[in-house]
Write a structure and sequence with these properties.
The strands form 2 sheets. A 5-stranded mixed beta sheet has the order 2-3-4-5-6. It has 10 helices and 8 strands. By secondary structure, it is α/β, with parallel strands linked by helices. β4, α6 and β5 form a beta-alpha-beta unit. It has a single domain, classed as Metal-dependent hydrolases (TIM Barrel, Alpha-Beta Barrel). The chain is globular. Helices cover 38% and strands 14% of the residues.
Length: 314
């Protein structure tokens, strides 16, 4: 089935029988140990963001009904080594890129090749160059956790870039509160963007509990053709304070199993609930601030030929 056939509903009905019209599902935001070390004071030297094993992630996805599987590690495709022989696996990553404003952004990029990964990493400190490459290669990408402060500060002009050039928004993230997800969904609808969903799980417990569904798709290509045609559906859980606190304890437990010498830090574990409460509170505050500002203003299109003359590439 061609892309043209899929994005045209009448032809879709003609060329796909009811027996083939199943729901293709994929968790589009999953992490493994290949995501690297956590970016927090002190523990950044020895604690990983995730201790998920790639094969365990694959097995859980299949057990919970995911038709196709990917992993989106931070600026890494190392997990693909053990999964590349699976016919229903495709290569993706979560790219940390620098916006023209100087802020950081996480982009989910999907269905890439190893060569794409190399070129993407070369360009990730220059959002414009990265955007041009993704567009030229027709790579599907999403702006992840739009209303989250995980990547630091946000500026109003960032949302102008999202409005003009973002292809898709992550409108349900399994680690974010329902309000942040609903605001992202509202913004995606306002901007006419594709909505996707993923668990963003750093432990196995959350993998495949939040996912994207495309009815009728039978291959990875058809899945993304369906998304581009706005046929995707977001499904599954939102995040919660209890959920993220439990995950922090799971990551801590995995770290202690791998590095027994870190047991000396165990007394500090009593601080973990307070840390997650602080994080959760900051996330809610961030969402309230930016959703109010974005909804109150106009989303002026950002054009590449209208760039500030003082802008310099990184």
């Amino acid at each position: 089935m061609s892309t043209f056939t899929y994005i045209s509903p009448p032809l879709h009905g003609l060329f796909i029988s009811q027996s083939d019209n199943f729901r293709m599902r994929c968790d589009l935001h999953v992490h493994t140990k290949a995501s690297g070390l956590i970016n927090s004071p002190i523990i950044r030297h020895f604690c990983y963001e995730s201790y998920n094993d790639a094969e365990a992630v694959y097995s859980r996805c299949k057990r919970l009904g995911m038709s196709i599987v990917t992993v989106t590690d931070h600026d890494s495709i190392d997990a693909a080594e053990v999964l590349r022989d699976r016919p229903d696996f495709f290569l993706s990553e979560e790219v940390t890129c620098t916006m023209p404003s100087g802020t950081e952004l996480h982009l989910g990029v999907y269905g890439i090749t190893e060569r794409d990964h190399i070129e993407i990493q070369k360009r990730r400190n220059d959002f414009i160059a990265l955007l041009m490459y993704l567009t030229e290669r027709k790579i599907f990408f999403s702006v992840n956790h739009v209303f989250s402060g995980l990547t630091g500060k946000r500026k109003a002009e960032d949302f102008e870039w999202f409005a003009s050039y973002g292809l898709a928004f992550e409108t349900r993230n399994g680690q974010m509160c329902s309000r942040a997800n609903l605001e992202a969904e509202r913004l995606a609808v306002s901007y006419g963007k594709v909505g996707i969903a993923g668990s963003d799980s750093h432990t196995l417990a959350g993998v495949a509990l939040t996912y994207t569904e495309v009815p009728g798709a039978r291959t990875v290509e058809e899945f993304f053709s369906g998304l581009r045609g706005h046929h995707g559906r977001i499904r599954g859980d939102h995040g919660s304070l209890a959920k993220i606190t439990a995950d922090v304890f799971r990551v801590t437990g995995a770290m202690l199993c791998e590095k027994p010498w870190a047991l000396a830090l165990l007394p500090l574990a009593v601080l973990l609930p307070a840390i997650t409460v602080g994080h959760w509170t900051n996330e809610i505050r961030f969402c309230k601030k930016w959703s109010k500002l974005v909804n109150a203003g106009d989303s002026a299109p950002r054009r590449l030929w209208d760039l500030d003359a003082t802008l310099r590439r990184a």
